[in-house]
Amino acid sequence: MNFILMAAMSLVPLFLGMSCKMLFKTKLTNAMVLFMFFMSVWQLDVSVLYSNDVIKTDSILFLFQLLRIGSIMLPPAFLYVGYISLKHLSKDEAKWMNLLINKYTLSAYVLWSVFIYIINWTDLGVLGLKSIQGIGNQVTVLYPIYGAWGSLFVNHIKLLVVSILLTLVASRKVTDKYVRNFLTLFSLTFLLTYMIGVLNLQAGTFIYSSQIAVMLFSIIIFFIFVHMSTRMIRDTSQILKRKEKEEQIEISTSGLIHEINNPLTVVKGYSDLLSRNEELDGSAKGMINHIGIAGDHMNSILTNYNHFIKSGKIQTEEADILDVLNESIALTSIRTKEKNVNIEFNSHKNIIVSIDRDKVRQVLINLINNSIDAMEKSARKVLKIDYYTKNNEIHILITDTGSGIHPDEWDHIFTPFHTTKKTGMGLGLSISQRIINSHGGYIEIVNSTAEGTELKVIMPLWSV
């Protein structure tokens, strides 16, 4: 009965890890799932020591040595979680951590763990199993008899606390608040579990320590996971609504554009033929010419609107928003110099986001160019750019000292073909808004007066 119960409990960490993977689509999640897998194997290894009433001792010894890969690989697996978390830190914050956690130390740790596992199969590691009695002599359980190098395994397991502490330190600087909170609580909870589970190394407390450790870890992680999931679902539902709206626009307008193009092609074709007819008088040719001009104008509108629709199709990747901002500023530097615009960019830290790098850069370039145009007649031409994270989102502020946007225009400025300029189709801001909407975010006017305009671009740190 004890064996069956513990074997079932050993799968709980793996199930929780897979559930976490379904919610968090990041490399950090994959690292945590790998750790949870080894933890399940570790617990399954412990459970076979309770199976002496259903499995032969020789078979138990084989299974025990085979499944010991779980406990042996726990320290490097947890360190791998810390290594991946460094990818979410700024370069300055991660610099000193990289000296301790890097691919070389991680590889060495894995090789050392493999060495310990190999020793486990020899008489230097485990000689055999012995029976011990629990409290009250009610439960008989097997316990390993260590060889001459058995202390290597014991010390290896104790080193797990180093991996936990390093990962805990790194987790506090992770940008994504959901990953940060989950990883921090995950580390603290497992540290408590480790402190109880390490009692497995003492035969006298063997019977109950592993059961208590698994129960504590499973229950606490379950509640942490539910809490994190609830908060994330609440926030991501808003993102999904924006994306759904964009998809509806694409579906409804793509078909309409196609249907209009068919008769438009006929109109343009016949107008071209009629314009070549020499029998028509000047008045008729003038009217046909107007038909051709109107057809070209309609074709231009459809082409541009089709471009607007396609702008919502994005391919996200992990990128540093600081790099994207620097690229956007560099690509508009010629205009800013020509127009004597002074850019004040508050470049302070690296923030990893999941975006379509090219299209977000296109948005930023468009907003910067609009600000430059707005400052054409300004005596003081200053463009301020800043960025920060809030509520698991990236906020980018673009502030200029231009002529401002009239309050009556605020509700229409992102509407397709609406423009306050003498030239242009009025699609720049609408395309920019559509691109950001496709990321699950939006562009808003924070403030606009005769002294200038402040725009904010808001996107989730990770795409859904």
TrEMBL record:
EC nos: 2.7.13.3
Spans through the membrane: 6-24, 31-50, 62-83, 104-121, 141-170, 182-201, 207-226
Residue stretches making up the Histidine kinase domain: 255-463
Coiled coil spans: none
Alphabetized UniProt keyword annotations: ATP-binding, Kinase, Membrane, Nucleotide-binding, Phosphoprotein, Transferase, Transmembrane, Transmembrane helix, Two-component regulatory system
Catalytically driven reaction(s): ATP + protein L-histidine = ADP + protein N-phospho-L-histidine
Pfam family, one: HisKA
Root EC class: transferase
InterPro entries: HATPase_C_sf, HATPase_dom, His_kinase_dom, HisK_dim/P_dom, HisK_dim/P_sf, Sensor_HK_Regulatory, Sig_transdc_His_kin-like_C
SMART domains reported in the protein's UniProt record: HATPase_c, HisKA
GO molecular function annotation: transferase activity
Protein name: histidine kinase
Lineage start: Bacteria, Bacillati, Bacillota, Bacilli, Bacillales
Gene responsible for this protein: sasA_4
